């Protein structure tokens, strides 16, 4: 049902949770998707029991037609990382349609920070769930794979929803600041 709903949409924000920061070695813990404001889905890749027989490989295979559909515009925050993760997992995604981090940088340069937490606070007055609330920090930091699925789901869906909602105001700001050409062509 999720795949059918998402395929009917033109644009989809995607966010990926992984086991680490090295995109070529990290494994996908889960992926979240949003195609309309205030609505998101989370698909856990490492859940026990698995969401689909065959686990992460079967999930990636099920998502493949959606993620490779040329009619669907994929969007994200810091897509370079997510796209490298999917590439390492055997799925080479097409170039992203929109990256909120890059759009923010093109429109505002060094005048502010461009991470998703800052953008959520700036545009929507949302104090997002900090990553450290899930995995901790320092010597006591754990992997996202060790966080209960329900907690990762809430966090990941928030990321996908905020990313989706950021496309509209950032697109307007790119135009207002004369940075649309830079964003789309460079």
Short structural description:
The protein has helices at residues 2-7, 55-68, 79-88, 100-108, 116-124, 131-135, 149-176, 180-185; strands at residues 11-18, 28-36, 39-44, 73-76, 98-99. The protein has 186 residues and is of the alpha/beta class.
How would you describe this structure to a colleague?
Helix 3 links the parallel strand 4 (73-76) and strand 5 (98-99). The protein has eight helices and five strands; from the N terminus they run H-E-E-E-H-E-H-E-H-H-H-H-H. It has helices at 2-7, 55-68, 79-88, 100-108, 116-124, 131-135, 149-176, 180-185; strands at 11-18, 28-36, 39-44, 73-76, 98-99. 35% of the residues are buried. A five-stranded mixed beta sheet has the order 3-2-1-4-5, sandwiched between helices. Helix 4 (100-108) runs parallel beside helix 7 and helix 5 crosses helix 7 (149-176). The model has no long low-confidence stretch (mean pLDDT 96). The radius of gyration is 16 Å and the shape is globular. Helices cover 47% and strands 16% of the residues. By secondary structure, the chain is α/β, with parallel strands linked by helices.
């Amino acid at each position: 049902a999720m795949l059918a709903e998402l395929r009917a949409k033109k644009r989809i924000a995607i966010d990926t949770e992984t086991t680490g920061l090295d995109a070529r070695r990290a494994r996908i813990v889960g992926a979240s998707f949003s195609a309309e404001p205030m609505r998101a889905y989370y698909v856990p890749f490492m859940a026990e029991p698995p969401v689909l027989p065959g686990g992460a490989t079967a999930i990636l295979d099920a998502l493949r037609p959606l993620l490779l559909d040329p009619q669907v515009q994929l969007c994200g925050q810091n897509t370079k990382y997510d796209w490298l993760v999917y590439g390492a997992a055997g799925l080479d995604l097409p170039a992203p349609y929109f990256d909120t981090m890059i759009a923010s940088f093109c429109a505002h340069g060094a005048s502010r920070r461009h991470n998703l937490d800052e953008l959520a606070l700036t545009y929507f007055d949302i104090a997002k769930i900090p990553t450290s609330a899930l995995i901790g920090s320092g010597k006591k930091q754990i992997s996202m794979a060790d966080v209960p699925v329900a907690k990762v789901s809430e966090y990941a869906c928030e990321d996908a929803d905020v990313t989706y909602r950021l496309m509209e105001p950032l697109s307007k700001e790119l135009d207002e600041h004369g940075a649309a050409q830079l964003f789309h062509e460079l």
